[in-house]
Design a protein that fits this description.
By secondary structure, this protein is α/β, with parallel strands linked by helices. 34% of the residues lie in helices and 22% in strands. The chain folds into three domains: 194 residues, Rossmann fold (3-Layer(aba) Sandwich); 76 residues, protoporphyrinogen ix oxidase, domain 3 (Orthogonal Bundle), CATH 1.10.3110; 55 residues, no CATH class. Helix 1 runs parallel beside helix 13 and helix 4 packs across helix 5. The two termini are 22 Å apart. The structure holds flavin-adenine dinucleotide. The site of flavin-adenine dinucleotide has 37 residues, from helix 1, helix 8, helix 12 and helix 13.
């Protein structure tokens, strides 16, 4: 079978490329997806009680990228949604990320914004050469807050101590010297009004796009020829693991439904120090669905399972660099997305990456 364009993976990266090729170039494109649905990890569905859940963990859209927001808005309307997260520490629920409210609640104080700045400066540990996530946290908030909020959570999430993780993990978490308790500060935040699965379906309505579900590329690759392959699966799998398996952290999602309208005080509550799970999401608080019951998702990070988060250590990056050398030699294959590029992308970033790749590598070669 020949297709000029073949895409492996129907996540946001693959779907964006397919949409652009079909609509902008008016070319035929084949998408091969091993799961039984499109959408990749942003997929959502109704459970047996009729409650909309995110099958692969809570997804909140947020961006400062006007182009990405406008692009996705062609396929969905948005519910305005300001995400909020609470963290259960010492028997209290405190806002995350750290804000003035968090410090006041943690220490039973009533400081204003500049007093909190002074408070944190006094707590902060001076570290000349910041190399790890532990260094980042200690240098920003000091030992006590590090232990209360970051240390155990990070260890649960990654299975190793923050002192073994590179700076990127904790650097991503902002510390706000104001009272803004929204989880994200981006200009555009929202949830697709009819869910992510519907958004994804709307991206690929063009008849030029053919989708093969339940099909692993590895099993049919010998039967398919193409001019360009856009590969959004795992790079180590593509190269038959010749430089070894890349490490990922996985998560086991356990969903529970309760005969009550509301389960918790915020859409997401983190449990840094108690229990084996890292956080609980109450889906109705994300989707605004009205229902007499409610479904929550508990997240148990684990080593085995679906590859979710590339491991942020020097050794893992060095191992991926070996694959990158192979990738550079490919003339007909474009590696795109969080698995193929072995890096964590938010939804907006992966769509931006796909739009730019289309413009720079496909639209120019016509
Ligand atoms: C728990 C969790 C929570 C997240 N929350 C947020 C959030 O709140 N906000 C946000 O912006 N981002 C969030 N993200 C990130 C978001 O999920 C990603 O940005 C997005 O899914 C990346 O899209 P992708 O197409 O690169 O990868 P994926 O969605 O993983 O798609 C890749 C697809 O390729 C398929 N595939 C792989 N190998 C093969 C093969 N051999 N043959 C056929 N098909 C194959 C897979 O089945 C998959 O469907 C979260 C991620 C996780 C893990």
């Amino acid at each position: 079978m020949f297709y000029k364009y073949v895409i492996v993976g129907a996540g946001l990266a693959g779907l964006t490329m397919a949409e652009r090729i079909a609509n902008e170039l008016n070319e035929k494109v084949l998408i091969i997806e091993k799961r039984n649905h499109i959408g990749g990890n942003v997929y959502d569905s109704y459970n047996e009680d009729g409650i909309l859940i995110h099958n692969y963990g809570p997804h909140i859209f947020h961006t400062n990228d006007q182009g990405v927001y406008d692009y996705l808005s062609k396929f969905t309307k948005w519910n305005d949604f300001w995400h909020r997260v609470l963290s259960y520490v010492d028997g209290n629920l405190v806002p995350m990320p750290i804000t003035v409210e968090t410090i006041n609640k943690l220490y039973n104080l009533n400081l204003d914004c500049s007093e909190v700045e002074d408070f944190l400066k006094k707590q902060a540990v001076e570290i000349a050469d910041i190399k790890t996530s532990k260094d980042v946290a200690l240098s920003k908030v000091g030992k006590d807050i590090y232990e209360k909020i970051f240390e155990s959570y990070t260890r649960k999430q990654w299975g190793i101590d923050p002192s073994e993780l590179d700076t990127s993990v904790i650097s991503r978490i902002p510390i706000r010297l104001n009272r803004d308790t929204r989880y994200f500060a981006d200009r555009y935040q929202g949830m697709p009004a009819h869910g992510y699965a519907k958004l994804c379906e709307n991206m690929v309505t063009n008849k030029n796009i053919k989708i093969m579900l339940n099909t692993d590329y590895q099993e049919i690759m010998k039967d398919i020829t193409y001019d360009t392959l856009i590969y959004t699966g795992s790079t180590d799998e593509y190269y038959q693991y010749k430089h070894g398996r890349l490490s990922y952290r996985s998560v086991n999602f356990i969903f529970e439904t309760y005969d009550t309208e509301k389960f918790q005080e915020a859409p997401v509550v983190n449990y840094p120090n108690d229990y084996d799970y890292t956080r609980i999401t109450e889906y109705k608080q994300l989707t605004w669905q009205q229902h007499k019951k409610t479904t929550i998702g508990k997240e148990f990070p684990c080593a085995e399972g679906e590859p979710y988060y590339p491991f942020p250590t020097k050794d893992c990056k060095a191992q991926f660099a070996l694959y990158e050398e192979e990738m550079k030699k490919e003339e007909k294959v474009i590696f795109l997305g969080r698995l193929a590029e072995y890096r964590y992308y938010n939804m907006d970033a992966v769509v931006r990456r796909a739009l730019d790749t289309f413009n720079q590598m496909i639209n120019v070669n016509r």
